[in-house]
Amino acid sequence: MSLSLNDGLFYLFGVGSVLAALAVVFVGNPIYSALFLAATMSLLGALFFVLEAYFISVAQITVYAGAVMVLFVMVVMLFDLGRSGEDVFKISPRTFLKIVSVGLLCGFLVGAGWFFNQAESLSSSGTKLLGDPVPSTMSLSRSLFSKYVFAFEAVGLVILVVIVGVVALAKTRGGTHHSELSDPRRG
Amino acid sequence: LSGLESYLSVGLNHYLVLAGILFSLGTMGVLLRRNALVILMCIELMLNAVNLTFVAFSKFNGNVDGQVMVFFVMAIAAGEAAVGLAIAVAIYKRFKEVNISSFESLKG
């Protein structure tokens, strides 16, 4: 078997998204983190396109790279945090412990992903390939509005609660520690 | 060389490995960074890694349910970002910075 175009696109977008995610974590400036996160989201949207999940791909770019990232960048600009750098690697035993534990988690996840055997798990769980060999946008919307219609409405309710909560939070003046107002703590 | 090609030709495992790497990077960001905004961004990164596994399983099983779950995860993640940013705004109004250690002073 030879490598196809889809394989090449997977490696291109996959390596790009990992590099952008590394930059999100290790760039000290929040505005650059936000921009690299937008790049990661867009590359993952491209990967969804390679996986033939066209609706999810477009929704990913619209919702994440569009709406959510604009929200983040707006907050960074509002507070003028663009100049507040941060040394990501503080040399301490705690940092070392964190990196080691994340390395263990990474090894576990990557090992589980690499040695996952799809044929065995499918035969044991008894999942069958249903209808379309490739899920399409039409089958997605059919499933969303028939089988998952209750969950869909519940998500609408959750978003309503989120709107009310965000408005309530935005009306607070930040914390309720009136006794400490004279000297705000700077953690 | 043909053995190498069989490793390189992309299957479900490659997507799972990529999602694992992205999830671990998000975890590392949550643990290492002190800026609350960047921690929220890293949580979004972790959610996206999970979305990638959902879509990959959906493709390789020929089942659309995974993509429905991605839709719900996206909706919840957008709401979570909105609430998290509102809390960060409240923190900034009070302490003039969004360091995560300021959060222990929130109550009420």
The chain-level mean pLDDT of chain B equals 85
Number-wise, the strands of chain B total 0
Oligomer: heterodimer
- Tell me, what's the shape of chain A? globular
What is the gyration radius of chain B calculated from CA atoms? Answer: 18 Å
Record keyword descriptors for this entry.
heterodimer, A: mainly alpha, B: 108 residues, mainly alpha, 4 helices, 0% strand, elongated
How is this fold's topology laid out?
The complex is a heterodimer of chains A (187) and B (108).
Chain A: H1 5-26, H2 30-50, H3 54-78, H4 93-115, H5 118-125, H6 137-146, H7 149-171
Chain B: H1 2-8, H2 12-32, H3 36-61, H4 65-95
Helix pairs in contact in B: 2-3, 3-4
Walk me through what this model shows.
The complex is a heterodimer of chains A (187) and B (108). Chain A has 187 residues and is an all-alpha fold. Chain A contains seven helices and no strands. Chain A is globular. Residues 123-132 and 179-183 of chain A have low confidence and may be disordered. Chain B is mostly helical and 108 residues long. Chain B is 79% helix and 0% strand. Chain B is built from four helices and no strands. Chain B has helices at residues 2-8, 12-32, 36-61, 65-95. The relative contact order of chain B is 0.12. The mean pLDDT of chain B is 85. Chains A and B meet through helix 1, helix 2, helix 3, helix 4 and helix 6 of A and helix 1, helix 2, helix 3 and helix 4 of B.
Describe this structure in a few short sentences:
The complex is a heterodimer of chains A (187) and B (108). Chain A is mainly α. Chain A is built from 7 helices and no strands.
